[in-house]
Amino acid sequence: MSVGLNDHFFFFGIRLHWILKFVVVLFMVFSVSGKASGDVEDQRSDEGELFRISGDAEKGRIIYEQLCLSCHGETGDGLGPAGQNFSTRLPDFTDSTHMFSRSDRYLFTIVRKGGRKVGKSEIMHSWESILTTEHIHDVLAYIKTFAKTYAVVLFHLRN
Questions:
Q1: Average pLDDT for the chain
Q2: Residue 137 contacts by C-beta under 8 Å, 6 or more apart in sequence?
Q3: Higher pLDDT, 54 or 155
Q4: What are the residue boundaries of the structural domains of the chain, listed by start?
Q5: Residue 109 burial (CB count, 10 A)
Q6: In CATH, which superfamily holds the domain spanning 35-43+52-148?
Q7: How many whole angstroms separate alpha carbon 99 and alpha carbon 72?
Q8: Which residues contact 107 (CB under 8 A, 6 or more apart)?
Q9: What pLDDT digit, counting tens, does each position of 100-139 carry?
Q10: Mean predicted confidence (pLDDT) in 5-19
């Protein structure tokens, strides 16, 4: 019988590989940085408060269905009817790794100013002249519902 290295190392009764998986997930969740992807404004507002999406997901669903669904797809997988014709693969909003790696400020900026502003494709154009700040918060609150929840992340940690 072969015994792996992790079978021998425990920390407070927990196998070492569980601890390492947990640390990796924590790093993914808490290391969101919009600065890594181009010219994105700071995460903090002028008052020093952390920027957070605070919209109404139900209102956002209506906006998403009218303006975003044709490219990003009904389920947010980036495979909408129009999105399938682009040479660039659109982001998959159901991918929690992708969504957790983007700060709220980054997501807000890419919707408001367009992909070019954050060093991404110009396919994602600016919605600044069409959507108010409140509308952008609403649609982003809805888009975030596509991503897998923390419970799913914990499930993967245990398996």
A1: 76
A2: 53, 54, 55, 56, 60, 108
A3: 54
A4: 35-43+52-148
A5: 23
A6: Cytochrome c-like domain (1.10.760.10)
A7: 14
A8: 53, 140, 143
A9: 888 999 999 999 999 999 999 889 999 999 999 999 999 9
A10: 53
Q: Provide the β-strand partners of residue 10.
A: 15
Q: What are the pLDDT digits (tens) for 64-87? A: 999 999 999 999 999 999 988 898
In degrees rounded to 5, what are phi and psi of residue 105? -65, -40
- Of 85 and 159, the one with more pLDDT: 85
Please write down the long-range contacts of 109-117, taking CB distance under 8 Å and 24 or more positions apart.
109/34, 109/40, 109/41, 111/136, 111/139, 111/140, 112/136, 117/38, 117/39, 117/40
The full 3-state SS of the chain, as one line of letters, equals: CCCCHHHCCEECCEEHHHHHHHHHHHHHHHCCCHHHHCCCCCCECCCCCECCCCCCHHHHHHHHHHHCHHHHCCCCCCCCCCHHHCCCCCCCCCCHHHHHCCCHHHHHHHHHHCHHHHCCCCCCCCCCCCCCHHHHHHHHHHHHCCCCCHHHHHHHHHC
What type of residue is 14?
Answer: I
> With the CA atoms of 13, 159, 94 and 84 taken in that order, what torsion angle do they form, in degrees rounded to the nearest 10?
140
